[in-house]
Backbone:
DNA sequence: ACAAATTTAGACACTCTTGTCCATTTCGTC
DNA sequence: GACGAAATGGACAAGAGTGTCTAAATTTGT
């Protein structure tokens, strides 16, 4: 291993390509077939790689599985935080902006490939790998919920919303935005753009009926003053 | 089969007991291990029955699985409809009554053994048995959602709520009532009574902020007069 | 073009699971 | 107590999947 000197971190190039295609194929197959139902030959075929290569890269089936869950968790979290950073802190049109945010969250984090796969794996194997998914729970909901809640708290503080408990409101916001996608999610389907938009629109409207200020920002300039009830 | 005359429908007694204990054990194991991960010996052991008995009763693994899904679907549906029939059509205290209803729905239909198992099986195997779960979709959400929506429509018509689209409102009601149980559901856990009550309380409060009449029933005496449903 | 590393295909041993068969025992009923 | 139906346990063949090993082919960096 004398070449460790200059390239240091970078293993061969094609090597990395194989690694990625193994991970891709494996998440696909594990999701479709469940851990027990998946087999290595299937993954190898789908990855366009020989079985031995998978063993070279990951050791065994279980290690491969763990690697995939970690990978998905990481990627999904990154996506969620990226999307949270687009939260409308200074909304021009509160309803439209929140709907757009809800749609982004759904499309980029929940309905996309990674989101769908991670959800499925958690549901399917969550009970069998408590420690692994405890990790997910901490990194995922444990960090993303509070981040969203903080954004809503800020929005309320700025006078755009009338919220008692931002944590509750944040969870309800997401629940409402996804209310009409539940059955599709259950069966492992992917809702199309229209469905996502519909659900988000209905959800945000209800959310604003519950938490919106009575008079929109346009008429009263200083709504922040007396607002609390 | 000469004894078919008087008992007619009733097969032997102990026979039926075995059947039940096989179904119980099998749902347990299929849920815990997924279809592919479950094995017949495990089920036999858990049922306190020999493997051969399972084959005598159900033919093969897949038939057993199908029988279980149908059984769970049926039982869950019955529970949901029974609970829907307790919907508060003439609420004394709208908030309290809706909270109690939401709690009943959760405890009796969603968080109980059957509900948990059916949900898990749908999530886990839904993609692999499209026809089987299409059946569930028709019998389940296809019939229960409209039934709940009809109840909300009636409540709105009677002047207790201000609802545009009862179908949307019904889905949002359930989404809100379960908003705080999502993570627990994901990981296959069973929320305790307090969690269910908390989530229902928060959810119903938000629901009523969105859809409740501005002035509570107390002040205006005759909202019931114009009601017809 | 060379040398090292990686990939490949195939064979292999091993284990686990399904579903069947059968002789024996137990159970429920009369 | 006797009869028939059902349950039992254990053996069994067949198949599938995991993980290892090997020699040959291919790719990669220099």
Residues:
């Amino acid at each position: 291993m004398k070449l460790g000197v200059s390239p240091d971190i970078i293993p061969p190039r094609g090597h990395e390509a194989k690694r990625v295609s193994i991970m891709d194929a494996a998440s696909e197959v594990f999701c479709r077939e469940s851990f027990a139902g998946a087999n290595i030959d299937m993954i190898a075929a789908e990855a366009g790689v020989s079985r031995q290569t998978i063993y070279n890269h990951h050791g065994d089936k279980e290690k491969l599985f763990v690697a995939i869950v970690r990978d998905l968790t990481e990627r999904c979290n990154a996506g969620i935080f990226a999307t949270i950073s687009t939260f409308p802190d200074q909304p021009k049109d509160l309803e439209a902006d929140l709907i757009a945010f809800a749609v982004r969250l759904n499309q980029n984090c929940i309905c996309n490939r990674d989101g769908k796969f991670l959800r499925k794996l958690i549901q399917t194997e969550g009970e069998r790998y408590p420690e692994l998914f405890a990790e997910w729970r901490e990194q995922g909901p444990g960090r993303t919920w509070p981040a969203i809640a903080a954004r809503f708290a800020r929005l309320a503080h700025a006078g755009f919303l009338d919220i008692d408990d931002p944590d509750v409101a944040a969870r309800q916001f997401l629940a409402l935005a996804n209310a009409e996608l539940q059955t599709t999610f259950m069966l492992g389907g992917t809702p199309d753009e229209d469905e996502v938009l519909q659900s988000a629109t209905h959800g945000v409207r209800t959310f604003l009926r519950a938490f919106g200020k009575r008079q929109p920002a346009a008429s009263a300039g200083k709504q922040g003053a007396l607002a609390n009830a």
In short: The longest helix of chain A spans residues 13-37. Confidence is low (pLDDT under 50) at residues 1-11, 216-229 of chain A. Chain A touches chain B through 40 residues (CB under 8 Å). Chain A has eleven helices and no strands.
